[in-house]
Amino acid sequence: MKVSVIIAVYKDVQALELIIESLKQQTYKNFEVIIAEDGQDEHMKAFVDSITSLEVKHTTQEDLGIRKTRSLNNGIIASSGKFLIFIDGDCIPYSTFIESYVILSEENCIL
Fold this sequence. Notes:
By secondary structure, this protein is of the alpha/beta class. It has a single domain (3-104), classed as Spore Coat Polysaccharide Biosynthesis Protein SpsA, Chain A, CATH 3.90.550.10. 36% of the residues lie in helices and 22% in strands. It has four helices and four strands, in the order βαβαβαβα. It has helices at 13-24, 42-50, 68-78, 97-104, and strands at 3-9, 31-37, 56-59, 83-88. It has a four-stranded parallel beta sheet with strand order 3-2-1-4, with helices on both faces. It is globular, with a radius of gyration of 13 Å. The two termini are 17 Å apart. The relative contact order is 0.28.
């Protein structure tokens, strides 16, 4: 079953680099990454464009102040997974994070 991992980010490319490295180490492999950026930072775009080892989608919006909810909604619209996992731009998932989520998931259940 495909999972969509939606990451809410705002201008912190270094933190996103750590998250992406962690996602590359996941034991569960059937997932896509959606980077839901609150803004349109050129450094962020360059980094996202450089990611080749994961299936990545990048959503952006005009930077008009904190609009995390709208940014996450953009990520949801872009997603194609059966389940959605949301992580913030300062959270680094452990290697079995997605696998554990899938094992514990049930339809219409929030973890």
